[in-house]
Amino acid sequence: MSAVPIFRRVALIGFGLIGGSIARAVRAQGLASEIVTTARSEKTRARVTELGIVDRVLETNAEAVNDADLVILCIPVGACGPVAQEIAPFLKAGAIVSDVGSVKGAIVREMAPHLPGHVHFVPAHPVAGTEHSGPDSGFAELFINRWCILTPPEGTDPMPVETLRAFWAGMGAKVEIMTPDHHDLVLAITSHLPHLIAYTIVGTADELAQVTSSEVIKFSAGGFRDFTRIAASDPTMWRDVFLNNKEAVLEMLGTFNEDLSKLTRAIRRNDGEALFEHFTRTRAIRRGIVEIGQDSAAPDFGRPHPPLEKKAE
Amino acid sequence: MSAVPIFRRVALIGFGLIGGSIARAVRAQGLASEIVTTARSEKTRARVTELGIVDRVLETNAEAVNDADLVILCIPVGACGPVAQEIAPFLKAGAIVSDVGSVKGAIVREMAPHLPGHVHFVPAHPVAGTEHSGPDSGFAELFINRWCILTPPEGTDPMPVETLRAFWAGMGAKVEIMTPDHHDLVLAITSHLPHLIAYTIVGTADELAQVTSSEVIKFSAGGFRDFTRIAASDPTMWRDVFLNNKEAVLEMLGTFNEDLSKLTRAIRRNDGEALFEHFTRTRAIRRGIVEIGQDSAAPDFGRPHPPLEKKAE
């Protein structure tokens, strides 16, 4: 703990990939004097106690938020409204209440009405993750060089927003502020639609009559396996994302379908020129992502390749 | 060169990612006494000479195949027919002629009629690659633990098929034999459709009115960046794949579209149960791929995460 703590007590409600990564990063960077957490299942609470990453594991949300300066809901979007209602009476005056949900309009609509006037509500979304879930899946480096988007509702006191910014920056994140509605549009294309498409194609491959599942799995290195990673993400979390960002997702899906029809028509008509032009254009986007450090420049995401064993004579 | 060479002279026509990886692997494993190559552009030929990976770089395809025991066309599918016609008169009796194309039905249709009866034609497709192209992009480990599919036309002599199997196995690949038509169906779902979908969504994201390209790039870690990798693959190669495996791709696309409509309807109707059920099922496929070693078990494909720098006091 080399730094001056930003908060005295941080309370994490939920300890999956994101909650667990925050706990590890906060401890590694000394961003809080005390980290307390709770989780819905006894099994998770027992595992977190075993891991020894937090100061105290509590049984209820009410106990967890007690006297906390920062409360972060690290639970699926659909659970945030009810939990906000549940914890409201126990929140300390002046506390910052935040979340990590992938949808922000619905979070504001569902949580804000329950929260007392004496706390500061600053919704947040760290755009980071892996396909793994559960208390063991988190790691302190998850947020490094990733963006965390804050969407304070209009009229939010600027001081707690800056404090939360410093907190996320302390975990290595870059912080951006935008409106909840714009966040939901941006994430619909950069995250929600990609997940929907990946979930679809993986399902399609699983149900074919002409090609067996075992063939799909065997020959997946031709591209398919890339999609299976995000289609292995937490089902509860993603169900809630689609139910809570419906309009923006359906809008992006409409545009995607038009574009897919265009490329399909080019294939049907043997229009090689149109295909070539499109495939050349999309290459540039990858370069942009690699250039600003949002993906690895290593071929194949840096996947490991074992060495070739020399053949015996 | 610890092993007994399988071939005296191997000729590679084309020196991109695949040709270059074969050359490096053949040399590392001592699978041939001599490797010769050619490439269409003078620039590539000069670069290959500089790299010093092969024994001789020749100016023409005719010179390259001269006296070769194995000739591999490592060029886009659309170029294979004309090149087969061009090299036919110069092929040695008893030579094996092969390729590395991602489509096999069209390769057989386009190449076989040109090849003389005194050579053995054994089409091949190593299901391996990265998003990089060009003479510098190859590496000897590319084929390790990846499948190489051989699709010998009916009536092919079994001996050269076994020789080619040993050659690919020597580079670390697992080898499977199937018909060209079945190959094209399998690859349509495990490779071609995923590429088409990735190319589409990356194009969609690039053209939106409500979200800027720079926002798409910044917040791509939410899932989108995974798609940009395969949408950065070689445009010429992929144009040829779609033009030459049109029927199978359009068929898989039809099934995909039906499935996408089903999920869209579930979102529209707030059918959380249907979404949850689908998202749970797709998780299992990922596990299967990781279990048989066709992808890394490391979270996020094993993408590197830099360490968190300790904050100064």
TrEMBL record, chains A, B:
GO terms for biological process: tyrosine biosynthetic process. GO terms for molecular function: NAD+ binding; prephenate dehydrogenase (NAD+) activity; prephenate dehydrogenase (NADP+) activity. Residues 8-297 form the Prephenate/arogenate dehydrogenase domain. Gene3D superfamilies: 6-phosphogluconate dehydrogenase C-terminal like domain, NAD(P)-binding Rossmann-like Domain. Its EC number is 1.3.1.12. Signal peptide: none annotated. InterPro entries: 6-PGluconate_DH-like_C_sf, NAD(P)-bd_dom_sf, PDH_C, PDH_N, Preph/Arog_dehydrog, Prephen_DH. PROSITE patterns: PDH_ADH. It holds the Pfam family PDH_N. Pathway: Amino-acid biosynthesis; L-tyrosine biosynthesis; (4-hydroxyphenyl)pyruvate from prephenate (NAD(+) route): step 1/1. It catalyses: prephenate + NAD(+) = 3-(4-hydroxyphenyl)pyruvate + CO2 + NADH. Keywords: Amino-acid biosynthesis, Aromatic amino acid biosynthesis, NAD, Oxidoreductase, Tyrosine biosynthesis. Belongs to the prephenate/arogenate dehydrogenase family. This is prephenate dehydrogenase. It comes from Bradyrhizobium icense.
